[in-house]
Amino acid sequence: MSELSHRPAEITPAEARLVVQALADHGGNISATARTLGVTRSKLKRRLRKADAWGISAHGEVLATAARRLEDRPHVRRYLLTSAQSNTGIHAGFWANLRALADHYGAEIMVARIRYNHSEAQVAQEKVNRAAETDLWYAPEVEPYLADERVEICPGLIWAGDMNIIPTAVNPLSGLDSFTGTASCVFPHPQIAMKSIATAPGTDAKFNYTTGAATLKHYIKRKAGLKAEFHHAFGALLVEVTPKGVWFARQINATDQGEIYDLDLRVEGGEVTTGHRLEVFTPGDIHGVKLDKEVLATVWGKGGLVDTLRPRHQVLNDVLNFGPRSHHNTFFDLVAALYDKVDTVEGEIQETAEILNGLTRRWAQTYVVKSNHDEHLDRWIETADFRRDPINAGFFLTAAAAKVAAIKRNDTGFDLAAWAFERAGLDPAIRFLSRHERLEIAGVRHDQHGDLGPNGARGTATNIARTGEKANIGHSHSAAIYQGCYQAGLFASLDMGYNRGPSSWSHSAILTYGNGKRAIVTLRAGQWRA
User: Fold this and answer.
1) 284 and 268 in one domain?
2) How far is residue 454's CA from residue 445's CA, in Å, rounded to a whole number?
3) Whether 119 contacts 131, CB under 8 Å
4) Are residues 123 and 46 both part of a single domain?
5) Is residue 383 part of a domain?
6) CA dihedral defined by 512, 153, 528, 293, rounded to 10 degrees?
7) What is the CA angle 410-416-417, rounded to 5?
8) Full pLDDT tens readout for the chain, 530 residues
9) Is the separation of the CB atoms in 305 and 517 below 8 Å?
10) H-helix or E-strand containing 461?
11) What are the two backbone dihedrals, phi and then psi, of residue 163, each rounded to the nearest 5 degrees?
């Protein structure tokens, strides 16, 4: 039982911080926190109200305390943020490679210590006549790099080095959406996770990240511990800050042997080599005619991301926007389409084909994942009345005839969107995937858009991760990492007309390396890195 269980409600500020920290460790769960501290729910709530009065918490949601701010510099600053678990040795191979990467970039390594109760592991050790761990200790290698404090890396990005999230937490970012207000935040934790958080209109989406760890896997051999061991990542978050204060972050995720890929770099045996090609590039949803022009130039323009990383494969989601006759359209949407001169379905497909042709590269195979917006064309053919839409009647009847002909010849693989794009002059090298086709590259599934979840549910990164296979998806327009599932954002306009109110959308893409490890990059101010 905790020593706080016998304290009166008038607790000290230091004790209040312990209560608030315990609540954060349990993801805001009052009942679980009360059980851990050995107090009743009502007593815990009184202590939280007291802490709230001191500005330490607010109705169970932890407030960010004042952070030390890193000084601005006239050049790019880089930081490698990671964690070290208590009573656990360093991963020597990964640590050597991380330090080599830091030297290559001139980056500062920052390590936060996180505590894990190994008491049951100690019992197991004693049973095999091994010495029990009696003292709390951390790998001595991380001592010069410790940063167990709250740090403002730059305006809009906080390092919560003082946060101790239990290493066995299934979802380490749970309950932390409003932590640090609108500023993005990095939390030390052995699992690599990322969450986009909706912010008010006119404000960039907020991101919460975890880091991975520099220490070995060391967990109690029970359900929670074994699950945590499975998702334990040898990793770090690389943060880059430009002299203007624009920041970029991407995951450094090593293999079990400690090998690191970052962009075109490979680090193995403490040696950095360059010129390595990216295996798969998965941009945010395209949406054809709505593709953001600045994003287009930054990614596919001369010297942009694609020309720099030279991916062997590109996987595109939602290539068709289907604005002129979407079943979501209201009467006034149709009026707007008429006056914007984008009233014809065939015209949008023609323009989209020209855009897609500009995204291809002779040295990269491009795939199109079957997506819900592409299927809007099928729905239109099945449900619309061409007699009430003279401007589209000709194309409607031609497309319907092609669909009927495919059914007549028993062509179960007929793809109406692929047919329409081919007719519009799309590069024949672009390959369209069916809903049931498997595309696995570097041990990762690339064939799911993300709109369809298990057993008829709506797709999310969380429920697709439960299928047990690593997957890259799109659809939600909000970047995310949840265990084995990575979700890209949106490459079209962040204002699509139908997204009103707070939004978590961002111009984010997934990078998949040859060893199967992945990272998410987010474009800011016409750049994809510092």
Assistant:
1) no
2) 15
3) no
4) no
5) yes
6) 130
7) 150
8) 344 433 434 567 667 778 877 887 776 778 878 888 888 888 887 887 766 655 554 333 444 445 778 878 889 999 999 999 999 999 999 999 999 999 999 999 999 999 998 765 444 444 343 334 457 899 999 999 999 999 999 999 999 999 999 999 999 999 999 999 999 999 999 999 999 999 998 888 999 999 999 999 999 999 999 999 999 999 999 999 999 999 999 999 999 999 999 999 999 999 999 999 999 999 999 999 999 999 999 999 999 999 999 999 999 999 999 976 665 556 555 555 555 545 799 999 999 999 999 999 999 999 999 999 999 999 999 999 999 999 999 999 999 999 999 999 999 999 999 999 999 999 999 999 999 999 999 999 999 999 999 999 999 999 999 999 999 999 999 999 999 999 999 999 998 877 889 999 999 999 999 999 999 999 999 999 99
9) no
10) helix 461-465
11) -85, 135
Q: From the CB of residue 87, how many other CB atoms can be counted at a distance below 10 Å? A: 19
Give alpha helix (H) positions in 301-389.
305-309, 331-339, 345-359, 376-383
Asked whether residue 182 falls in the same domain as residue 299, the answer is no
Are 169 and 316 members of one domain?
no
Q: Which domain holds residue 442?
A: 280-522
Q: Is residue 298 one of the residues assigned to a domain?
A: yes
For 79, other C-beta atoms within 10 Å of its C-beta total: 26
Do 113 and 11 reside in the same domain of the chain? Answer: no
Residue 463 to residue 467: CA distance in whole angstroms: 7
Q: Is 270 in a helix, a strand, or coil? A: coil
Last residue in a domain, options 227, 243, 273: 273
Token code pair at residue 128: 């095999």
Residue 425 in any domain: the answer is yes
Answer for the pair 451, 467: CB distance below 8 angstroms, yes or no. no
* H or E segment to which residue 78 belongs: strand 77-85
Residue carrying structure tokens 């970039």: 105
E strand residue ranges, 443-529: 444-445, 471-473, 480-482, 485-487, 508-512, 518-522
Domain count, the chain: 3
Residues 508 and 426 in one domain: yes
